[in-house]
Design goal:
This protein is mostly helical. It is built from seven helices and no strands. The termini are far apart. The relative contact order is 0.22.
Length: 141
């Protein structure tokens, strides 16, 4: 998938919601695969790597400074934020909604893909995603 198509996919947001899925802030009940709440950035980063490995089969190491779109596009050929969000919920009960992706990407603040590329693309990293996951886990405790 081209970078342009990835950018369009990121901008489109949630296309389909699984039946019965609550996109609100409440965490699903039930056991988690994680025995330690990911309320720290290093633990949240571990969760990202587990999701990449178990849900996508990606064995490559990621660093906090890696851009999400570039890494996943090079590893998978495409990136679907909805699918990634569902994997985070399925694996660890950590919800990310469209507002979260808008915050991470900065799309709503740009008029053109070129503007996003120079203003916000460098900030669309796994490190920022780990920060957000840690915050979500902290709120949910």
């Amino acid at each position: 998938m081209s970078r342009r198509r990835v950018q369009v996919a990121l901008r489109k947001g949630v296309r389909e919601k699984p039946i019965g899925y609550d996109w609100g802030m409440s965490l699903p009940a039930g056991p988690s695969k994680s025995s330690v709440a990911p309320s720290s950035k290093p633990r949240a980063f571990d969760i990202i790597e587990i999701v990449l490995r178990e849900s996508y089969g990606i064995k490559d190491c990621v660093s906090p400074n890696d851009r999400i779109d570039e890494f996943l596009t090079s590893s998978l050929g495409e990136f679907d934020p909805d699918e990634f969000s569902i994997a985070l919920v399925d694996e660890f009960g950590i919800p990310l909604n469209q507002d979260d992706w808008d915050f991470l990407t900065g799309w709503k603040l740009c008029k053109k893909p070129e503007e996003w590329e120079w203003r916000f693309a460098p900030l669309f990293t796994f490190g920022r995603l780990a920060d957000l996951i840690a915050l979500r886990a902290e709120i949910g405790q």
